[in-house]
Amino acid sequence: MDRDWMRQRLEAFDELVTQYRNVQYANGDTSDERKQLFEAEPTVVRILRRLDPQMLDSEVLGEDAWQGLTINVNEVRRGIGILADMDEWTTRMAPDAPSLPADRFHPWVWDAARTFWESKHYRAAVHAAATSINAHLQDKLGRRDLSDAKLVQEAFSDKAPETGKPRLRIPGDQTDPGVQTRQRGALQLGQGAYFALRNPAAHETGDLAEQDALEQLATFSVLARLIDGCQIVMHA
Known about the structure:
Blueprint: H1 3-25, H2 31-51, E1 61-63, E2 69-71, H3 73-92, H4 107-118, H5 122-141, H6 148-155, E3 167-169, H7 177-203, H8 210-229, E4 231-233
Antiparallel strand pairs: 1-2, 3-4
């Protein structure tokens, strides 16, 4: 809905009404103004009914018994008021909702993404966050031979650690079904984040929408906290 255009048309009609009445008061010929008003009215009516289907039950213009022009200008001005405040209604009267402050994401994510985010390079911010997590995970496991989804797969594998292949374990009793479920979930989340989010961020063109990028950073923040909180299990 083009609110600026709608408001311009209503304001132009209101100005034309004022011009018509000024000419009428001066006992001048109002035929030109009447013509312009009737030409503009259909669009004005459509706009008003678009703003509020219940707003207008009759036409904006009419004629009295002496063929004088009647003008329902108050509804036009009401429409102008609606358009003037509509954007503010959206922000001021929206239901309370939780916010997601990016600077409270895990430091591995936000410290890497912040510079790109502040310059509105949202895809680059996501890519930087994913790269940062990969670097920290490599450092935590002491591995440089793998990266990204493959590294996550090896890190959260339920296989026993091997020489040169330490594992990450969710804290808790490893025989507990709940801990085992979280372990599998961390593996799937990590692989999904790299396949579905990091790879497009690295290879696709065009930027992400801000909201999409924020949600993707939040996903990586969850992954970072899981990795950061895991225990390292080494080969005996």
